[in-house]
Specification:
This protein is of the alpha/beta class and 203 residues long. 47% of the residues lie in helices and 15% in strands.
């Protein structure tokens, strides 16, 4: 058996497919590897290039495999697709990844650190919460408009609506008041705190 130069790794939830190729492109091995055994198998291999498609879990595995002494290369999935020779399956994908990684003009994605991923998560969470807050406010304004209560747009005017909802002046039916309180209770405060907070790389 020849020496492995590149390992193409097709990531999955539980069972991964590994394709080991020599420097001349010849097949050295093809094997399935469970998630629990992946690092053990990679540790047993001599230092080489380990290539994966850049996906949800690739940065985690990239860091772990890189710590074992391998050179990790992440490839955008769109750049791997042209190298799939036959019907798409895990084995074919792993082989295509290995072949794509061997190309001298291939473009790769840098492996992100844990801090970089945490910062990206913070921005995505903020974006999600801002959208949820906007949806909640718009729903509240629409429901109250049906009752003849109109307020300007924007989160700055939610307090005015909350005051009307919490009032006891008979402007709102009891059922509407109870349902509206669901929209102005704890979630609205959480949206405001997280969405308005400045996000930094150390958050």
């Amino acid at each position: 058996m020849g020496e492995v130069s590149i390992i193409g790794l097709d990531l999955a939830k539980n069972v991964f497919q590994a394709h080991g190729a020599g420097a001349d492109g010849s097949v050295v091995f093809r094997r399935k590897v469970s998630r629990a055994q992946l690092l053990k198998v990679m540790a047993a291999q001599p230092p080489c290039v380990v290539a994966m498609e850049a996906c949800v879990s690739s940065h985690h595995w990239g860091r772990a495999i890189g710590d074992l002494g391998h050179e990790v290369r992440l490839i955008p999935p769109a750049y791997v697709k042209p190298f799939v020779k036959r019907q798409k399956n895990h084995m074919a994908d792993a082989e295509a990844i290995a072949e794509a990684a061997s190309r001298p003009t291939m473009r790769f994605v840098a492996v992100k650190s844990e801090a970089q991923q945490a910062a990206a998560m913070a921005y995505r969470n903020r974006d999600l919460l801002v959208r949820q807050r906007t949806q909640t406010i718009n729903a509240l304004r629409a429901h109250l408009a049906e009752q003849g209560i109109v307020a300007p747009t924007g989160p700055a005017h939610v307090g005015r609506l909350a005051t009307i909802i919490d009032g006891d002046d008979g402007m709102l039916p009891a059922a509407v008041r109870d349902l509206a309180r669901c929209l102005t209770s704890a979630p609205m405060g959480q949206f405001r705190q997280i969405a308005d907070r400045r996000v930094s790389g150390s958050s």
